[in-house]
Amino acid sequence: MIKNITCIICPKGCSLTAEINEGIVCVNGNTCERGKQYATDECLNPTRTVTSMVRVSNKCNCMVSVKTVKPIPKGKIFETMELIRGAEVCAPVSIGDVILEDVFGTQVIATKNIDR
Amino acid sequence: MIKHDLVIVGGGPAGMAAAVAAYDSGVKDVVIIDRDASLGGILQQCIHNGFGLHKLGEELTGPEYASVYEKKVRERNITIYNDMMVTCLTADKIVTAQGSSGILKIQAKAVILAMGCRERSRGALNICGTRPAGIYSAGTAQKLMNCEGYSVGKKVVILGSGDIGLIMARRMTLEGAKVEAVCEIMPYSGGLTRNIVQCLEDYNIPLYLSHTVAEIHGQKRLEGVTIAQVDENRRIIENTKRFIACDTLLLSVGLIPENELTKEAGIPIDNITNGAIVDENRQTLVPGIFACGNVLQVHDLVDYVSDEAELAGNGAAQYILNGGCKGDSVCTEAGNGVRYVLPQRVNTGTGKDVSLFLRVTKPYGKVRFTVKSSENVLAKAVRIKAAPGEMEKITIKADLLNNITEPITVELEEV
Predict the structure, then answer these.
(1) Do A6 and B196 touch (CB under 8 A)?
(2) Full residue range of the structural domain in which residue A89 is found
(3) Same domain for A8 and A25?
(4) How far is CA B66 from CA A19, A63, B127, B306, B312, in A?
(5) Closest Cβ opposite residue A53 in set B47, B50, B198
(6) Other CB atoms closer than 10 Å to residue B36's CB: what's the count?
(7) B82 at interface of A, judged by CB pairs closer than 8 A
(8) What does the mean pLDDT of chain B come to?
(9) What pLDDT does B331 receive?
(10) Once rounded to an integer, what is the mean pLDDT over residues B211-224?
(11) pLDDT digits (tens, 9 = 90+) for B195-216
(12) Average predicted confidence (pLDDT) for chain A
């Protein structure tokens, strides 16, 4: 089976084709190694980084942005969002602070500094 | 009136990178003035990832990218005025600002304009219908959602397929809203291909090309929109009209460089970029006033904003320290298939490579760009595809710029 994939690793957006044969993926059209890896993952185990925000409970109208440290399986995006929605933090928050441990094999961390 | 060597208007990615570059080039008296409470500009609300791949070699979110530069600014002895808005700029480089620190009047030796851009609004589009609540520019909705934590709407139509609109389609979907449609009046998307994939296709959000919003319905809150297909002259085709119920309409219909100060100072503006006319150091036609970032040309990547701001920062430092470039210059021209070329002027014989930034007029397959001055070929570049939404960069080697006297043109041919 041949799959047409648009690479999302960088803004070039290369058009890739991936041919899957017994679990082995043959990639064409990539202009870099990361593109090849992306197409392979996209066929076998597609993943995405999820970014969202979490309410800062001790500050009015204040949100801290967060992300998954590593991409999570694409099929788990909405479950990850549910977990993130349930989280709450107290200021001060620093970039890299762990907000949620162990979300589909990775962590959710803060991506913004919030002063007290 | 107080005196400073360099005043930078705007503390977003452009202003911060320019400040750091100027400081590191030897100008130690640098001031950043920003109207927001914190540095970072628009990056603070861009919580998605994908920033910094080119410039920093890692994939960061907007606030993280901003914090990298904010740290650099704070490590240097750079003065920051937050909550201060520059209200006047003159050609002799007097900057007036007002806000939390009262009124500030600064005589600068050089000024860098880094005010960014703003979104086109409904008023610029002439959409018929009522004026209910629930119509936002995509960036406003992004700020309300990502910085202040408001839910903006539940059933959404997005007009325009610029990157902010695409990013917001995904963002609202993740927060539980149903995005019914993204309508794009052009026959192609204005956003990056990767955003079409990861923001729309991932979530099965339909993108209707050559479609627009013909009418807005609802009294207090938006109740729906009529969308319609358009012909090749962008006129609505009557029998294609259909109603979509929604409570929210996001507009992602273009960005306008915020050049009110620039115009007030009498700085000539390029009619296509809507930013100042500049040379390769990003100096405007008023000596000592520089411009960079989205106030100069709307970028797709913040990485290129930072690069451009460094050129402006270095240029301003050279101007302050030794008067800047004084040699001959030639202008640049957009040839076949090219919408604009920036910088609009290039100083010759400076001994430095010069990169030209440009956008094409429409989507193309494989193309070859040729950069020429009269009959001299200065650079060639081949691209597998080219689209108006993706800025191209072509570099001319320093030694080829030594003896040219004729305008530099960039042309595209399909290969």
Answers:
(1) yes
(2) 51-110
(3) yes
(4) 40, 17, 36, 11, 18
(5) B47
(6) 16
(7) no
(8) 95
(9) 96
(10) 97
(11) 999 999 999 999 999 999 999 9
(12) 91
Interface pTM (ipTM) of the complex? 0.92
**What number is the average pLDDT over the span B46-51?**
94
The answer to the question of residue A15 being in a domain is yes
Fold of B121-253: FAD/NAD(P)-binding domain (3.50.50)
In CATH, the number for domain B1-119+255-326 is 3.50.50.60
Domain tally for chain A?
2
Note the CATH architecture for domain B327-415.
Answer: Sandwich (2.60)
Q: Are A64 and A100 within one domain? A: yes
H/E segment holding residue B411: strand B408-414
Residue bearing the bigger pLDDT, B169 or A116: B169
- Check if B148 contacts A (Cβ < 8 Å): yes
pLDDT in tens, B230-277: 999 999 999 999 999 999 999 999 999 999 999 999 999 999 999 999
* Distance from the A27 Cα atom to the nearest Cα atom in chain B, whole angstroms: 17
Residues of A with CB under 8 A from a CB of B: 6-11, 13-14, 31, 48-53, 55, 61-63, 65-67, 74, 77-78, 81, 95, 111-113
Same domain assignment for residues A23 and A57: no
- HSE at residue B62, side-chain half, CA atoms within 13 A, is 24
Q: Looking at the DSSP assignment, which residues form a beta bridge with residue A27?
A: A18
Cβ contact B174–A52 (<8 Å): yes
User: Which helix (H) or strand (E) segment is A79 a member of?
Assistant: helix A77-85
Which of the 8 DSSP states describes residue B407?
A: P
CB pairs < 8 Å spanning A and B? 81
Query: Is B194's CB within 8 Å of A55's CB?
Result: no
Asked if A39 and A65 sit in the same domain, the reply is no
Q: Does a structural domain hold residue A115?
A: no
- Domain-embedded: residue A56: yes
How far CA B342 is from CA of B276, B281, B334, in Å, comes to: 10, 11, 9
Indicate whether A23 pLDDT > 80: no
Mean pLDDT, residues A74-91:
95
Domain CATH for A88: 3.10.530
pLDDT tens-digit readout, B64-90: 999 999 999 999 999 999 999 999 999
Q: Dihedral sign, CA of B174, B181, B186, B269?
A: negative
Residue A28 has pLDDT above 80, yes or no: yes
